[in-house]
Amino acid sequence: MNLTLEIFSFIVGFLAIVVAITVHEFAHAFLADRLGDPTPRLQGRLTLNPLAHLDPIGTLLLLIARFGWGKPVQFDPFNLRNPRRDAALISIAGPISNLLLATAASIVLRVLLGLQYSVIAHTTETIGIIAAILISFLNSLIYMNVVLAIFNLIPIHPLDGFKIVGGFLNPSQAREWYSLERYGFIFLILLIFPMFGNTAPISYILSPALKIILSILLPSSGATI
Fold first, then answer.
1. Which end of the chain has fewer beta carbons closer than 10 Å to its terminal beta carbon, N or C?
2. Where are the transmembrane segments (predicted)?
3. The predicted structure's pLDDT at residue 67
4. Model-level pTM?
5. What pLDDT score was predicted for residue 224?
6. How far is Cα of residue 40 from the mean position of the Cα atoms in its chain?
7. Does residue 186 lie within any of the structural domains?
8. How many other CB atoms are there within 10 angstroms of residue 175's CB atom?
């Protein structure tokens, strides 16, 4: 029974992060297209098909460690009217889409929980099982979307937060800021790699924001993955 529950939790969690990554990357592609750059459309990224957005290595890590990434959406700044500002808008579209999806999932989850206690509990066992699966998936979907949004807002290249910050700086400041791009992966590895015991430094950055947002979006009575 425990093995079955673990397999179920893995499948639900994997599907949730695939949906979160797909929506995240689609949002980047959609806004880049709307701002005048056809590159994502020409590369087949203007779709909600997960296969267009999943990175092979990132997906493999999702299966192994439940942590991975999608294929970055490429855009040509020369096609944008205001390259730095529009790059920031394209970048922030991903995290915003995740938070909007998490909010929508939270609303649906609360409706399902209300029905579970008032209606579904008095219906057939099959309907009750389906409702329980949906509730579990929605819990995981909310969690994964919030994590992906907050993680990508960290201002380190190649995360979205790096270009978002660049969009708020004046030209001279922006040049200095973008000169740090080459060190992005080093900073990111230092944040992800556990340094004190089994805790990665990035967890200290993400935890406060995650707790606040999840306390709002996840009903206290909802099941967690």
1. N
2. 7-31, 51-69, 89-109, 129-154, 183-206
3. 64
4. 0.89
5. 41
6. 19
7. yes
8. 11
Host domain of residue 169: 2-217
Structure tokens at 143: 């969690």
Please give the structure tokens belonging to residue 100: 């909007």
Cβ atoms of residues 29 and 73 within 8 Å: yes
84-110 tens-digit pLDDT: 999 999 999 999 999 999 999 999 999
Structural domains of the chain, count: 1
For 92, residues 6+ apart whose C-beta sits below 8 A from its C-beta are 160, 164
User: What confidence score (pLDDT) does residue 225 get?
Assistant: 38
Q: Please indicate, yes or no, if residue 199 is contained in any of the structural domains.
A: yes
Closest CA to 23 of 76, 78, 70, 58: 70
Whether the Cβ atoms of residue 102 and residue 95 lie closer than 8 Å to each other: no
Confidence label for 221 from pLDDT (cuts 50, 70 and 90): very low
Please tell me which residue in 6, 25, 125, 181 is annotated as part of the active site.
25
pLDDT at 117: 67
* Cis amide linkage into residue 158, ω under 30° from 0: yes
Q: Respond yes or no: is residue 181 known to be catalytic.
A: no
- The first and second tokens of residue 141, run together, are 């979907």
Q: Is residue 225 part of a domain?
A: no
With beta carbons less than 8 A apart as the criterion, state whether 39 and 163 touch. no
Range with the poorest average pLDDT among 29-38, 77-86, 172-181, 198-207:
198-207
Residue 223 belongs to a domain = no
